[in-house]
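Morning F.,

Quick status update on the modeling queue. The single chain you submitted on Monday has been processed. Sequence for confirmation:
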Amino acid sequence: MTKQTRDIPEGVKDGVKVRVIAGEAIGIKSPIHTLTPTMYLDFTLDPGSHLQQPIPSSWNAFVYGLEREGVISKKKSSPVKLYTLRLLGSGDGLEAWDNSSKPFKFVLIAGSTRSFRDQHKRTD
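Structure tokens below.
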């Protein structure tokens, strides 16, 4: 069955809006099952808001700025600009701030570094 846009769960907490395409954020879990653990999260931060999103330390992750710019990782880091990709380091999790006067929109895409085959190897 094909999922429609209206089927994507979304929520808002403390000025952070998220659409959970895959994975989990702010207590909202996607109904989509992936063979390899994955996060695909579409965030919009209101001006002045702050987000902390855990990411397992063994995963690879990146963010991609879609509207405006905002700070990702450390509060004094350079902003993620529009249409810019930023790789996150292992174990960083995600911290994001919107210090501007307009909403900051970006996607977080993360996944396990282990393949489905590795996770389900037979040991006999």
